[in-house]
Amino acid sequence: MITVYRPSDRVRVRAGELELELRPLTVEQKQELAGYATLEGAQSVSDIYKMAMGGIQYGVTAIKGISYPDGTEAQVELDEKGLTAESLDLVMQALDNQLAIRISNKLLKSISDMDDVEGIELVADEPKVKSKKK
Q1: What is the pLDDT at residue 4?
Q2: Within a 10 A sphere around the Cβ of 99, how many other Cβ atoms?
Q3: Plot region of 58 (φ>0 → left; ψ -120 to 50 → alpha; else → beta)
Q4: Distance between CA atoms of 13 and 100, rounded to whole angstroms?
Q5: Dist. CA 66–CA 115, nearest whole Å
Q6: Which residues of the chain are modeled with pLDDT < 50?
Q7: Which whole-number Å values give the CA distances from 33 to 1, 25, 44, 47, 121, in the listed order?
Q8: What pLDDT sits at residue 89?
């Protein structure tokens, strides 16, 4: 049986000292990110860094393990697209570029089996599901 995650599902992963909460990308978000791949001659060339930033912006909903110089813990903010520009800058500073690329590539395919990504381990076996308020 194939496991499919709803847009409201969350998967928590650990990357070194950071803990990330991820959500699956929508079809529209995947299409946008796939648009960063272009054909030059007969070869497909990607702007992999733009893809990585987009995947992180859309996929990351929370992060733990980042602090400011004064010791306060950094929090991310979300808007209708995902991480705000300031929060995206914060997360991209904290993540190694290669790890951001690997996370984004996995999100483009599927959020399942995130622990297959080098440098990532699952924090919990079950996804965190946001309950709908009545």
Answers
A1: 85
A2: 19
A3: alpha
A4: 13
A5: 21
A6: none
A7: 28, 10, 14, 10, 24
A8: 96
